[in-house]
Design goal:
The complex is a heterodimer of chains A (419) and B (327).
Chain A lengths: L3 H15 L15 H7 L4 H11 L6 E5 L6 H15 L3 E7 L6 H11 L5 H9 L9 E7 L8 E7 L8 H12 L5 E7 L6 H10 L1 H4 L4 E6 L1 H4 L3 H6 L4 E4 L5 H13 L21 H11 L3 H18 L6 H16 L6 H13 L2 E2 L5 H5 L6 H13 L3 E3 L7 E4 L13
Parallel strand pairs in A: 1-6, 1-7, 2-5, 5-6
Antiparallel strand pairs in A: 3-4, 8-10, 9-10
Helix pairs in contact in A: 5-6, 5-7, 12-13, 13-14, 14-15, 16-18
Chain B lengths: L8 H11 L2 H10 L12 H14 L3 H11 L5 H6 L6 H19 L4 H4 L3 H29 L4 H24 L3 H23 L3 H15 L5 H18 L2 H18 L2 H17 L3 H17 L3 H22 L1
Helix pairs in contact in B: 1-3, 3-4, 6-8, 8-9, 8-10, 10-11, 11-12, 12-13, 12-14, 13-14, 14-15, 15-16
The chains are: A alpha/beta (419), B mainly alpha (327).
């Protein structure tokens, strides 16, 4: 019988055989540090070139980066911010994710204030909002005691209570003015607009035109359905560039895989892209299969890669052969479909998409909708989006219809040809 | 007391005061083309008196009574005219809060036997509930006028109170099989639908959508699929006006499925026409034209000259765009 210590050592043996210190894959670029991101990021040369050419101009711009779930918007935005921080002198570049309940002005204000650790006003604003500040915001109160000369002045300090700025857009403008005393260019990147209700985002964009047209550069990321082809955004002239991130080609996916594996290899064992051993413990065949199945979507490559390595470790496989890879794919399928908390409706909709291959607002029938006790596709949209969040489905990048297909991580029933 | 002529202006004013909150009064006025914001009076009661006088002066008093009766068919005018509010405000408010909560919580404990109530039970419950909530809203607003409270929490509470009768109606409908209640629900959904159209016509898209959503949640519980499709279609139209084309497309297709199920040719044609214009707006011009042609065929069969003319104008514009692209 093996003791827990033996089991730990056995797990270590497998990772030693693979030449990896840990499983390198991550679900989201938010979890990566700037240094790690720099090591992993690859491709998107044309898109970066477009952005950097714009940034080199004097006139400030507003850029909207869009693409489907898991396509790499966060990594792209964080890479831009990272490059500006490293390479552009006198540029302040800040990244922030738009959290639930947060408006654009507040997000921009927090993003900017965090980058001004020595500015009293910035730190005061952060403290007021209950956020960590590098300086404690205090209010000084001075009282003079009558009748006593010299020692009659008393100063007390009180910490400000937490509160939201009454006019975040005005506070942002004021802070921007202060920041421009030290910097020549201020760039604010606001991520994750797609995680909010599209109607709410549209309302925000309408209400906060003033903010977006202020004296800062803005990068926003979101879902294509949110803003592209949007008459409102076009009429208001909100964006100077709408940049679509498309799925990566196979070569770039392969390079990304090599980067991930190199990130957990000792420096002397890191490989070049053209070396045969670059994808070890994957074989050339299974590495290419992983890239193909991920369909150029970095999130899928990360998740499937992670499941395959986990299964291989469980099997004690020193190399990811086609059989081990297939076992990993089946493991991913089991794990995802066996997720707890799926409702009957979600299970039915998932099976329906698996059966049909593609389910859309155009192709769904009233009989199919009746089975989930509704007569409107609109009512099953939250279910479909929930299944996308769970990586069971993917939303197709079509504007002709709202379409969903099985995620590459879920196996299609055997009677159907593989996607 | 069904004879409208026997209802006095005083009774009308009291009914408005008791059974309508401020937002509903505004809707009522809007529906009758009465400039509510221009009516004289500082307090709510004074504004209501001005509203009644306005209808008398402009010869629409009977129309006002009809609108009240359609919106609140359960009002017993005889019983109502005998009601008096003698209690002091804080005491009455406290009692109303307790009673309202009692009614609403009791509905969550209805047993399966109780569901088979006599036909009038559900509508009676609705009447009681409406009366209490409206009185609560009214008193709350009066307190708000005096204290000047207008923070987020107060506003949220007012919104909750405004939505309470709607939610209660939805709850009752899903539990009871009561023709009176269904008739009321149908009228209510129709009123919300029409108000939605009026508000969207004035460019108040969000307010209009809110009305359509209310109408749709009720219509989903009723059997008339054509009416349900009508509201979904209007929601689609509103989203199209707002520029949210993806949402508009989904709604038109949902409406189309229902119209196809009931065989409503006019509804199908309207959906085809608007889906065509959405496709063109999205840049899929040929697909859009094909969809509009389907609508044209249907309108031609119906000899609907107005719609055919509208389609001709759209097609003329589309062809000009295509010409320019070719050049």
């Amino acid at each position: 019988m093996s003791t827990p210590d033996d089991l730990w050592a056995q797990a270590g043996d497998i990772f030693d055989a693979w030449g990896l210190s840990e499983i390198p894959f991550t679900e989201s670029a938010v979890e990566l540090g700037q240094k790690q991101l720099r090591q992993l990021f690859t491709g998107r040369e044309n898109e970066l070139r477009q952005v950097f050419n714009l940034v080199r101009g004097r006139e400030r711009k507003r850029i909207f980066v869009y693409g489907w779930v898991g396509i790499g918007k966060t990594a792209f935005l964080r890479e831009i911010i990272g490059v500006l921080e490293r390479k552009a002198p006198k540029t302040l570049a800040s990244y922030i994710s738009l959290l639930p309940g947060m408006d654009l002005s507040t997000a921009a204000l927090i993003g900017l204030a965090r980058k001004l650790p020595k500015d009293d006003y910035a730190q005061h604003l952060l403290t007021q909002m209950g956020l960590p500040a590098s300086q404690r915001a205090v209010e000084k109160k001075t009282t003079v005691k009558a009748g006593l000369s010299g020692s009659g002045v008393e100063t007390t300090e009180e910490t400000s209570p937490f509160s939201r700025p009454l006019y975040p857009a005005a506070s942002f403008e004021a802070l921007l003015d202060r920041a421009y005393q030290k910097f020549d260019r201020i760039v604010i990147g606001i991520d994750d607009l797609e995680k909010r209700n599209p109607d709410l985002i549209r309302q925000m964009l309408r209400d906060e035109q003033g903010l977006l047209k202020s004296n800062a550069w803005f990068f926003l990321t979101g879902h294509p359905a949110t803003i592209t082809h949007d008459i409102l955004a076009r009429e208001l002239g909100l964006f100077d560039l709408a940049l679509e991130l498309k799925p990566l080609d196979q070569t770039t996916s392969y390079r990304m895989l090599v980067n991930y594996l190199n990130s957990v290899r000792p420096k002397e064992k890191q490989r070049d892209y053209d070396e045969l051993q670059a994808v070890w413990p994957f074989t050339q065949d299974t590495a290419r299969e992983l890239c193909a199945r991920s369909e150029g979507i970095p999130r899928m490559l990360n998740r499937l890669g992670s499941y395959v390595l986990l299964k291989a470790a469980e099997l004690g496989a020193p190399m990811i052969t086609p059989d081990v890879f297939q076992a990993g794919v089946e493991f991913a399928d089991q794990q995802l479909r066996g997720q707890s908390g799926l409702t009957i409706e979600e299970m039915y909709i998932l099976e329906l998409v698996l059966d049909k291959g593609v389910l859309s607002d155009e192709s769904v029938t009233l009989e199919e909708l009746d089975k989930v006790r509704t007569k409107e596709f609109r009512e099953i949209l939250p279910i479909l989006d929930n299944l996308v969040q769970r990586d069971l489905l993917k939303r197709l990048p079509s504007e002709r219809a709202t379409e969903y297909a099985p995620s590459p991580l879920v196996r299609i029933p055997k009677s159907d040809p593989p996607v | 007391m069904d004879d409208k002529k026997s209802i006095t202006p005083k009774q009308v004013a009291e009914a408005l005061n008791m059974y309508f909150n401020t937002a509903e009064l505004q809707s009522l006025a809007l529906n009758m083309d009465i400039p509510y914001d221009d009516l004289e009076g500082i307090s709510r009661s004074e504004t209501i008196i001005s509203l009644v006088k306005y209808t008398q002066r402009h010869g629409v008093y009977e129309q006002l009574i009809k609108a009240i009766q359609e919106t609140r068919p359960y009002i017993n005018w005889d019983k109502f005219s005998q009601q008096s509010v003698q209690e002091s405000k804080p005491a009455a408010l406290e009692k109303d809060v307790t009673n309202t909560l009692n009614v609403s919580s009791s509905t969550h404990h209805i047993t399966s036997d109780e569901v088979k109530l006599a036909p009038s039970s559900a509508s009676q419950q609705l009447e009681d509930f409406y009366f209490r909530v409206n009185r609560l809203q009214q008193q709350f607003q009066e307190i708000q006028d005096i204290t000047g409270l207008n923070d987020e929490e107060t506003q949220n509470l007012l919104n909750l109170l405004e939505d309470a009768p709607h939610e209660f109606l939805r709850d009752l409908l899903s539990r009871h099989d009561d023709p009176t209640l269904e008739q009321y629900a149908q009228n209510y959904a129709e009123m919300e639908h029409e108000l939605g159209i009026a508000l969207v016509g004035q460019g108040k898209w969000h307010a209009g959508l809110r009305r359509f959503d209310r109408s749709l949640t009720i219509r989903r519980l009723l059997d008339n699929l054509d009416e349900r499709a009508d509201t979904i279609y209007q929601i689609g139209r509103t989203y199209q006006l707002m520029g949210n084309l993806a949402e508009a497309q989904i709604r038109y297709r949902d409406a189309m499925r229902l119209y196809q199920h009931t065989g409503n040719k006019a509804g199908i044609a309207a959906c085809n026409l608007n889906l065509g214009t959405v496709a063109i707006q999205l840049g899929f011009i040929d697909e859009g034209i094909a969809q509009i042609q389907k609508a044209r065929l249907a309108y031609r069969q119906d000899d609907n000259d107005k719609k055919l003319q509208e389609i001709d104008e759209i097609m003329h514009f589309v062809h000009r765009v295509k010409e320019k692209e070719r050049v």
